[in-house]
Design brief:
The radius of gyration is 21 Å and the shape is globular. Strand 9 and strand 10 form a beta hairpin. The strands form three sheets. A six-stranded mixed beta sheet has the order 4-3-7-8-9-10, sandwiched between helices. The chain contains eight helices and ten strands. The chain has 270 residues and is an alpha/beta fold. The termini are far apart. 35% of the residues lie in helices and 26% in strands.
């Protein structure tokens, strides 16, 4: 195989297998090339990835060493996407009765969801995460997008048990904004003990839902390594029950009468 062909194939392999540890002999056998040639190819791929601001190749030393692709957007690329997202959300036509904001089109756009997943995954790319957890239903596409870049499975917390998922663990929790008692369930076989977890949600007000998920995960002895949300409500900060989280955008004001929305970058840029 020509070097130009190998470079294309190598790049595609890393994009399809992010954070997967692969040995150099694997590539030598796959492309029938010397290790020295493969090493040179990897250097080219790594340089271009960094120049494009889409991640880098991490070399793992030792007898079992190799290389893996760490998907990490540059600050410039992340900030530009977040600013574009803020501009999109500031459209007055998004205001719904009760001061809510219409976001279903964003969560239904595959390209946008993929980019949201890429940005959040970049923030957590250096962490050892085994699984992404979300609650049904709007957080599901975001969770899968993040998980695809971290190369880990997705586990979905639900409001009620499903007979097809076997025995489940359930908890009651208090919603942070409405102060209502609600229920969450998670099948026993869906999560192994002591798993390193990344929680993903689409919108956070006071943080009651995320606190509920954290309490449920405690029943599985899980370690919550990261919490990522697409948008947070600025007016709930005084009552917020979650401190350690990463948000892409912050909705600071929704004026129904004046038909005005203010959206700022979240704490990812802080």
């Amino acid at each position: 195989m020509k070097r130009s062909d190998r470079l294309v194939s190598l790049t595609n392999y890393f994009f399809e297998n992010p954070k997967k540890h692969t040995s150099l002999p694997f590539f030598s056998t796959k492309y029938n090339a010397a290790k020295s040639s493969i090493s040179e190819d990897l250097g080219i791929v790594d340089r271009v990835m960094q120049e494009e601001g889409i991640g880098h190749l991490q070399t793992l030393p030792g007898a079992s060493g190799g290389v893996r692709y760490v998907p990490k957007l540059s600050s410039e690329n992340s900030n530009q996407f977040i600013q574009d997202l803020c501009n999109t959300l500031e459209d007055p036509a998004r205001i719904l009765p009760g001061g809510y904001l219409y976001m279903s089109d964003i969560l239904g756009n595959p390209n946008t969801v993929k980019q949201i997943g890429r940005v959040l995954a970049s923030a957590f790319s250096e962490l050892e995460i085994n699984v992404v957890v979300t609650v049904a239903t709007k957080g599901i596409p975001l969770a899968y997008a993040v998980a695809s870049f971290l190369n880990v499975p997705v586990v979905i917390v639900r409001r009620d048990p499903k007979v097809t998922e076997g025995s489940s663990v359930s908890i009651n929790y208090v919603s942070g904004s409405s102060r209502k008692i609600q229920t969450m369930v998670l099948p026993k076989r869906s999560l192994q003990d002591n798993a390193n977890v990344c929680i993903i949600d689409d919108f956070m007000k006071a943080g009651g839902t995320i606190t509920g998920m954290t309490s449920l995960l405690d029943e599985f002895n899980a370690n919550v390594k990261a919490i990522g949300v697409l948008a947070e409500a600025d007016d709930e900060e005084d009552e917020r029950v979650v401190d350690n989280y990463t948000s892409l955008v912050k909705i600071t004001n929704v004026d129904i009468k004046q038909k005005n929305i203010e959206v700022l970058p979240g704490n990812l840029q802080a």
